[in-house]
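cron nightly-structures :: item 1 of 1
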Amino acid sequence: RRKRLDRTWKHSHLHPSVQCRSLPSSACHKIPARMKVMGWMLCGLAVMVGFVGICWRDTFEPGSLSGARVLLTGASTGIGEQIAYHYARFGARLVLTARREAQLQNVAEKCLELGAKEAIYYPADMASTPESEKLVQFALQNLGGLDYVVLNHMGWSPFQMWDGDVDHARWLMQV
């Protein structure tokens, strides 16, 4: 009897399933009500996710982007570059912009190789309001309008805790 109490005390900090190995079977089958409710909730969630997965209908038609007029900022590298390539594969007409003209030119050339109906570039810094206004006018004149505008740019910001500089935060949002 003393040995059994020692084992119970020694393992009482463990999960109930671990405790069951060292305790008599009568003490092992008590599952807290909270765990039962969580189990039922997880089962319900799994059923709902399965139902949505079965019923989901993908309504995207790649042909809908063929000839679409797209203005894409921050298109010289990274995510913006990859977005440009995806639109190009769908046959869109692109106006690409970023600060680095040489890289932007390479992206525009590759977009044409990938199937873009048109890919022109306009080097600009979106932090400058007059430049961004000129860019929009350029896109409107060259494409005859815009169907999509993808804003993939951001102003410079130091990687640190926010120091309360409201003006800088306002400027970032304006950019």
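cron nightly-structures :: done
The chain has a mean pLDDT of 82.
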